[in-house]
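Structure (tokenized):
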């Protein structure tokens, strides 16, 4: 080992340091501000960051990761999870720890799953835990890494009574390092990375809520307590997040769905299964109507497929090898095993194979609003966001290789058009590449990944790469949408697949008379109608725009003498195809306005009193834009028509 190493900075500068220099030393040599903001380093573009406090023994390209970046926040939150576990152990010494990762969730930044035995923690204990976290942070204990042999590691966890950590050690492959991080008297099995010390976490943290979680996610195992928290670069960011959480609680689709009578789930009679009530059903109808019309105009054909099929179909597709734990199995039909479909693609492939195909016919663009069923553990079910039965807005394109680039670009453009139509305008785009478990030819995977990346570059879209994040049969482009609260949601995906055509022996007759394999594009725009509807409810806070609203307007009578005029006006608007109701109740006009505009979230109300009757007008108020003044019935109809056509 040489006495010095060469470290290349992101700007290309090369600096010489003593071997064993830490990342923190490097940051300090560049500037005090950088050293203060730094939480980790990345060497030679590695997937996993490295703790700042560890020595650097070889020359490398170095990136200083700061606390306000996504990678820095992940390190910060991981360290905060350890501090939370330390706080729990101080008030519940008998607690047994399982795991505490940082997570990508709009609400939370990390959690820790803990077996609390006979000493449960409730929401009333969370302020004490948060205060105790502050004490541990103020104590500024260094995070110290230690690697132990398997026998010593197990003995250490036995001494601490950490049964779940022992189970985790047993799953670490022979030869892999077994590492711990110690901070003060607290020690945890962990590969890191962590900030240099607990004090580096700062003051932007919070303990937020508790939930239940099964060990290993298995409902047959013991139920543990999951404690959620968050951490940000500073207190101001945490305060802004708390404010967002309060607003998110008001907009929670489960709460709004109940208040507006949009949907319910079946509970004990069918966990994770959704029932759409008339108003929610109407919004869904408008979503589907728009979806179908856009697809037909966009050159797609609409298809429908069954809900079940024999297990052989799923064996051929590969789902039984790669996705069986997520499927509902064991349905006996005439002595054969049938399975509920988790995806629509095998059926579309079977449709393709019903006749001989020519290169002149391609591409086929087949779209389906297909209801699928996937097993999700009870602890993960969440309103409309995580369900067991949902309708996927699916499409599969069967194309020639020379059509790949054009069709991928067309699909991504279509994705963005549809999402913008629902008032989403900020996106995160990700290219997900070949996972460790995959099927097919690596060379074809490389070709597919290169095609997707070239399309993103041609469309001039900013994107990141998720190494190993592709489906088992092909790489994909994923699109996340940013909602009105600044949260990102994964919705759309475009996947390029050479594998399924091979597995199903799909062919077409090429121009030379020979048989060739088509390429397949799997594409979803909204993802799941249920989940997207839940996102829309929270994005709009239940206040749907005119084109989606189940009730577009209510005409209000100031007094009983105005009732006849109000009823006639509402009827005339309904005859024009608008969803307009009337309110001729004896309630005061101010109460009516508040009820319909703010409680029921109707986009428009029209008021009719003496003045309006005499002038033959209606005074209109918009929920968002306020008073729109007096207008004729025809003008109000034209306004509704314009707002509907403009999807606002």
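Design, position by position:
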């Amino acid at each position: 080992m040489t006495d010095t190493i060469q470290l290349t900075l992101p700007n290309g500068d090369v600096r010489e340091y003593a071997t064993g220099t830490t990342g923190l030393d490097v940051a300090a040599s560049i500037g005090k501000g950088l050293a203060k903001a730094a939480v980790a380093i990345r060497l030679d573009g590695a997937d996993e960051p490295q703790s700042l406090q560890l020595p650097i023994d070889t020359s490398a390209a170095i990136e200083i990761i700061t606390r306000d970046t996504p990678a820095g926040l992940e390190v910060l939150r991981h360290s905060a999870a350890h501090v939370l576990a330390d706080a729990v152990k101080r008030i519940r010494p008998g607690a047994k720890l399982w795991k505490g990762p940082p997570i990508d969730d709009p609400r939370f930044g990390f959690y820790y799953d803990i077996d609390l035995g006979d000493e449960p923690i409730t929401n009333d204990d969370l302020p004490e835990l948060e205060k105790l976290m502050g004490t541990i942070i103020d104590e500024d204990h260094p995070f110290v890494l230690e690697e132990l042999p398997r026998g010593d590691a197990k003995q250490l966890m036995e001494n601490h009574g950490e049964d779940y950590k022992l189970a985790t050690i047993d799953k670490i492959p022979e030869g892999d390092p077994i590492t711990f991080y110690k901070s003060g008297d607290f020690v945890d099995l962990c590969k890191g990375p962590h900030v240099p010390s607990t004090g580096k976490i700062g003051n932007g943290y919070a303990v937020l809520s508790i939930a239940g979680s099964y060990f290993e996610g298995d409902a047959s195992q013991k139920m543990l307590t999951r404690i959620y928290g968050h951490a940000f670069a500073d207190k101001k960011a945490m305060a802004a997040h708390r404010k967002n959480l309060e607003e998110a609680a008001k907009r929670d689709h489960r709460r709004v769905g109940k208040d507006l009578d949009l949907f319910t789930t079946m509970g004990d009679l069918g966990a994770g299964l959704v029932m759409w009530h008339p108003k929610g059903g109407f919004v869904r109808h408008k979503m589907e109507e728009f979806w179908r019309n856009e697809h037909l105009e966009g050159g797609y054909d609409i298809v429908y497929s069954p809900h079940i099929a024999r297990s052989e179909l799923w064996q051929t597709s590969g789902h039984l090898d790669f996705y069986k734990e997520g499927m509902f199995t064991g349905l006996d039909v005439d002595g054969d095993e049938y399975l509920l479909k988790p995806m629509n693609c095998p059926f579309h492939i079977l449709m393709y194979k019903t006749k001989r195909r020519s290169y002149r016919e391609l591409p086929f663009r087949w779209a389906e609003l297909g209801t699928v069923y996937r097993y999700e553990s009870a602890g993960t079910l969440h309103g409309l966001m995580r369900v067991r039965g949902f309708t996927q807005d699916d499409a599969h394109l069967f194309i020639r290789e020379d059509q790949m680039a054009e069709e991928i670009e067309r699909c991504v453009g279509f994705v963005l058009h549809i999402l913008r139509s629902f008032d989403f305008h900020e996106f995160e785009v990700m290219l997900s590449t070949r996972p460790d478990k995959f099927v097919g030819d690596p060379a074809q995977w490389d070709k597919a990944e290169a095609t997707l990346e070239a399309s993103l570059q041609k469309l001039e879209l900013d994107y990141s790469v998720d190494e190993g994040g592709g489906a088992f049969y092909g790489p994909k482009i994923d699109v996340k949408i940013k909602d009105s609260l600044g949260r990102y949601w994964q919705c759309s995906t475009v996947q390029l697949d050479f594998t399924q055509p091979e597995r199903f022996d799909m062919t077409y007759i090429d121009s030379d008379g020979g048989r060739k394999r088509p390429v397949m594009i799997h594409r979803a725009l909204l993802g799941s109608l249920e989940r997207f509807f839940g996102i829309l409810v929270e994005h709009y806070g239940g206040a749907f725009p005119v084109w989606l609203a189940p009730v577009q307007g209510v005409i209000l009578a100031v007094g009983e003498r105005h009732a006849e005029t109000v009823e006639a006006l509402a009827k005339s608007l309904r005859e024009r195809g608008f969803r307009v109701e009337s309110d001729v109740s004896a309630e005061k006009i101010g109460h009516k306005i508040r009820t319909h505009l703010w409680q029921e979230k109707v986009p428009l109300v029209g008021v009719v009193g003496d003045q309006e009757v005499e002038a033959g007008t209606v005074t209109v108020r918009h929920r968002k834009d306020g008073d729109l003044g007096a207008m004729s019935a025809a003008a109000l109809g034209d306004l509704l028509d314009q707002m509907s056509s403009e999807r606002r």
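Reviewer-requested clarification: The first strand starts at residue 4 and ends at 8. The domain at 4-66 is CATH 3.10.20.30 (Ubiquitin-like (UB roll)).
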